[in-house]
Amino acid sequence: xxxxxxxxxxxxxxxxxxxxxxxxxxxxxxxxxxxxxxxxxxxxxxxxxxxxxxxxxxxxxxxxxxxxxxxxxxxxxxxxxxx
Length: 83
What we know:
alpha+beta; Nuclear Transport Factor 2, Chain: A; 6-stranded mixed β-sheet; 66% strand
């Protein structure tokens, strides 16, 4: 199950393990301080949410698309952009 990961304009279609490594690197550079979901919408099988992340002294907008399947919920796309 691959997902599209866009971290500050660097777009990758990657496996769960690759995404975990990319996000680990991001959060090493930008230590999270707070996160809140500002908006959510959609209905099964596709839902999305937009959140505000305060990390490393900067503000980011996080967009998350989640697909619901019989065996659980899966992240389809995750985008992190500077505000």
